[in-house]
UniProtKB/TrEMBL annotation:
This is Potassium channel tetramerization domain containing 5a. Gene3D superfamilies: 3.30.70.2000, 6.10.140.750, Potassium Channel Kv1.1, Chain A. It comes from Hucho hucho. Residues 33-135 form the BTB domain. Residues 1-26, 202-223 are annotated as: Disordered. GO terms for molecular function: cullin family protein binding. It holds the Pfam family BTB_2.
Amino acid sequence: MAEKSPDFSGSVDQCPALSPEQRMQSPGIGASKWVRLNVGGTYFLTTRQTLCRDSKSFLYRLCQADPNLDSDKDETGAYLIDRDPTYFGPVLNYLRHGKLVLNIGLAEEGVLEEAEFYNIPSLIKLIKDKIRERDCKTVQLPIKHVYRVLQCQEEELTQMVSTMSDGWKFEQLVSIGSSYNYGNEDQAEFLCVVSKELHNQSYGTSSEPSEKAKILQEQGSRM
């Protein structure tokens, strides 16, 4: 005789229906893996897994509903964070894929401020290294100069050196002897080497020569 299957209809507990807010707050249920953030008026949608990448961070505590963390929500249920959204994007992307990607013109210092606020040590170190590398490149750029060689007579020398302007400075004086007689006196001639720094030139793109070979000879001219 076939056995009668047991009837569980009267003994099975029914799971209570959850409201949308409860579903968002209950791990592992439906849309609970998604988190909506309102950062300075701009909305970001990401996952709890992304925000929990660093267990020491502010965002990790936010997802864990830390009672010591004062986290309000707006009318849409998004967490309110009073920070600059421009610099939050790189922070969120770093948590997503582990790389620091900055748009052109975005200051590293601004992203560093956000990384420190959200307390993400690995990102803080990465940005500080990037800033240090940037500053070292700026300091190590060689200063370029343009050089000129001016030919003048002895009587013009003092006036020429004393009237140099616009950043030109004296470098070297070379006597080339006498070229002609003026009355009964020989007029000594000199080559005067002067230089000037090149400003606002991008390294490697300057149209000026890179060596001290640019010589403009000017007969009897002054600065």
